[in-house]
Amino acid sequence: MVTYLRTQGAVPFVITNVPQALLSFVCSNSVYGTTGNPHNKDRTPGGSSGGEAALVAAGGAPFGIGSDLAGSLRIPAAMRGIVSLKPTEGRLVVTNSHGGVPGRGRLGLSYGFFTRNVEDQVFLLDNILSSENYVKVVRKTAPVPFRHSAFKAEKKLKIGYFVNDGFLKPVPACARAVNDTVEKLKGAGHELVVFKVPEPMHMAEMFLQESDA
């Protein structure tokens, strides 16, 4: 993906910080130290792609690249007030990279972008996924272009949500953020359905086992 972006005029200029072993929702390690939140240095930028999100949020780059297995794009974006999306695994391909723990197999990661607005996110995804040249450069990529019809569709959605997953009780600010979002989506005409997470302890065990596979 980086090779293709270079052909489009992109200039990679920095490698940003990540948490140790890529297994944390904060951004700190013993080699490069701790990355703070550009909006408040005493708070975390999230993880694991936290350094990249902090750079984009601070205006240091027009966009950034990160990976996501269990929220490593989405969590930093939420903590920074920027835009990201976890594509389907294999939609965007990165080669010649290394896992977070030596000897551990590569998990099913998705690669994606951090941008400061939705328009830039769509531009990047369209520029790559709709390009015949990208498919030639990255031959593992499925030749399926970005679907503008799906992006522009005004179909009302049925969206499930929960405030408490039954494993970790959210702090009031997080619960309020979910409820505020629910009301905004209802106001836009979507149907919101609250659901109870089944077997939250089993869910947590599966997540930890998969993360340590």
TrEMBL record:
Q: Domain Amidase spans what residues?
A: 2-210
Q: Give the record's keywords alphabetically.
A: Hydrolase
**Keyword Transferase carried by entry:** no
**One BP annotation, GO:** fatty acid catabolic process
Protein's name in the database: Amidase domain-containing protein
Q: Which family does it belong to?
A: Belongs to the amidase family.
Among the GO molecular function terms of this UniProt record, one is:
fatty acid amide hydrolase activity
By its UniProt entry, which InterPro entries does this protein fall under?
A: Amidase_CS (IPR020556), Amidase_dom (IPR023631), AS_sf (IPR036928), Endocannabinoid_amidase (IPR052096)
